[in-house]
Amino acid sequence: MAGRRRLLPCVGLGLLAVLCWVWVSFASLSGDQLHLDVLDAPDRGAFQPQSALSDMEFASVASYRGPGNSDRRSKRELPILLWWSGGLFPHFPGDTERVDCATSSCLVTSNRKVQLYKRTASIIFYGTDFRAYEAPLPRLRHQTWALFHEESPMNNYILSHGPGIRLFNYTATFRRESDYPLTLQWLPSLEYLLEPVAVSLEEKNRLRREGLAPVLYMQSHCDVPSDRDRYVHELMKYIEVDSYGKCLNNRPLPEHLEDTATATGEEPGFMNFVARYKFHLALENGVCPDYMTEKLWRPLHQGCVPVYRGSPVVADWMPNDHSVVIIDSFPSPKALADFLKRLDENDDEYVRYLEFKDPRRITNTRLLEGLDSREWGVNDMSKPNYLNGFECYVCEQENARLAAERAYRKAPQKTQPPQGKMASNSHMGCPLPSPGYGDIKDLPADDGWLQIWPQDYWQSLDQAEGLESLIRHNESDPSLLWKHIQNIAVSRARGKH
Question: Which portions of the chain have biased composition (kind: Polar residues) (predicted)?
């Protein structure tokens, strides 16, 4: 498949072996520009994970001035926020806009010509597009960097390493610890969860008697870090699974649903089709705390039981402690299959997993408070979307920082210098990918997953450390990244890093 990188044999020991490995990294990264960048256009959609932004509705709304905003400065006086990823600029139709937030205002733009301006206070990056070899250098002392990354960790593992995430001062990610958390980005509302069961248990049992499998699997992104297909393949040995899409396919989709793009939205025909199943295998493409997508929320909405693997702390956000089957609670695929068979045969036990449809049975206060307190909405035109929300968060932070700096310069004996913010691993860090089933040491050397994702993870660490080194040396040419990576590798081999 296009975009895969193979581990090349390196002959030698010690420093020679390290330099050989570094050369392989250069060949993979500088030539391919990372595995997602080399895919032909038709393959991109099939390979890349979906983003919640895909379904978000945007509207061009008049500037709103918060009740505490008395900022009367002209556009020429306001601090500038630069959206480095212009395609995400949340304003239409131009490339520059004044934003009036709760207590202060900023000028926001996607025009990179302002990168080196003194008034440009912060640069906002979209994590999926952030590449170490394209970073805006030199990094100016008066500028902060902000990260918006709601997508899968697989899109950019640089952000899962300390040297990568520490580059940023403000963050909006799926992790609850980020400055502007997007944890519930795929859950539109509490009412979405409370929708009545789409297909009754009586109808599901009738369909089961007619030959419908108890378990649904629907995936077309097959080569992913979570290695989910390997687990599902093993599970299929012990329980019947109807698998549609491109991955482990064993059932054809009805002709009117053959365009699997319908699976990325909530097209009624598709929703009615999948709602017939008792259990939905809901395995994320990446395993990381708080990374939860529609694979989890949609079955809950429909009144099906998700069989879930993804966020290891998923229970923190579930309606109650009996609404999802967590794969990692079982010692083996066979044990999981035996449990699902028992639920399939016992209506009373199965229905317990759907009791949260009664709002009185939603007992998780973290979920309720999270939905109630978030200032942004999902397809809710009465609230800002989270792009505009994060933009205003950065604007408020920068105005406060600039005011604190002015106060300190004016009276250094009476005021404290502003304390800088820095992101940490808790804002984004995700673990090294591991096999979906079995032990990594038992995989053959030519295993396709093994050749892609562990390598990608560690090469991303090289890039993160290389970019950190570029910034530390005040470099202005990002093409020197490879030289810095090589120097780091040599120092590491000599025990100096």
Answer: 413-427
